[in-house]
Amino acid sequence: MIDVLTVIVHLGVKRDYKTIAFAPTYHAVGLGRGFMPSFWQAGTVIFPATPGFSPAFLHQVAAVEDVHYVMLVPGMIEPLYRAWDGRPIGCLKSVSVSSAPTPLRLRRQLAEMFPTADLMMGYGMTESFSISLQRPADFLGHPEGVGEPSLDARVRIVDDDGRSVPRGEVGHIVARTLAMGLYYNNDAENTRLTFRRCTDDPEGMEWIFTGDLGRLDPDGRVTIVDRAKDIIISGGENVSSAEVEAAIIEHPKVRECAIVGLPDERWGEAVCAVVVKTAEDIADEALAREILAHCRRRLGGYKLPKRIAFLDVLPRSPFGKVLKRDLRKSHFARLVDLESEQKDESKGGRA
């Protein structure tokens, strides 16, 4: 429960604050960030009447009574924005986002809906609880970041051998917190891979290897580059799925996007964008070419999507995370192959 007190301090949750418990409370973030801060401060926790996320519910409640704090996941922001009537919601004092990187477009939508609220991005995992939290001043100005280490956390960036790398270099994000776990029950192999010592740690303690790649800037702020397992190796080059997603989601006709690597004889892995359109009357092939042109202005040639698939919805977990493992196994009925569009690109190298 030390982590709950840390979150209360970071998020500024005051006594008697009212919240809506959107995220499932069986999950660490839903419980530790969504439910407990207001509960511990003798506040009121409102549960939606029906299971699943209802984007209209927050707007309905906020129209008749004050809601002071909410915790959201990125997959909730776009539906909330589409259900919004355009009138600023001024009762919110604090809004926290967690569980996945949040592109600038979604951050701007939150700022438009809740103009007077402190908007913050959190980073953590079940094994550690809170790792970092972003200050409101950085929410729009540093959209790729997830903030500074929490009060009860230590964060390092290390190489494959567990040695610290210089500030600004990409490596494995590892953390120690006062709320961290010690092992996985009946799972010795994952325990060995996750709870490890850093080679150059003079204290010789175990750290949580998060599975994320990232960097620390000169001010100690954490930026997540990608999940290590989501890095795509195309033509011998590493491609961050998060970077490509952030570029594509800025296209005005794209509602949602996920990037995965698909097996490819020539490239090893081909960068594939899985897109949900803003309107079904937009032609797939025409939009695919628009997205490619959009990406050419923002990304190096080796990062450009070689295939674009279209779905009505992205597969998500009950907590709202995109299930990329499902996408990698999918046989897309609506797939546009852009390989011929990229013959002028260098063969796997940087453009």
**Order of helix and strand elements from N to C terminus:** HEHEHEHEHEEHEEEHEEEEEHEEHEHE
CATH class category label of the largest domain: Alpha Beta
Q: Indicate the overall shape.
A: globular
Number of helices, where a helix is a run of at least 4 consecutive DSSP H or I residues: 10
What is the CATH T-level topology of the largest domain?
Rossmann fold
Task: Tell how many strands the DSSP assignment holds.
Answer: 18
> What does the radius of gyration come to?
21 Å
CATH architectural designation of the largest domain = 3-Layer(aba) Sandwich
Provide the structure class.
alpha/beta
First and last CA, distance: 50 Å
Number of domains: 3
Q: What's the overall average pLDDT, rounded?
A: 90
Unreliable sequence segments: 346-351
Into which percent range does the helicity of residues fall?
25-40%
Largest sheet: 12 strands, mixed
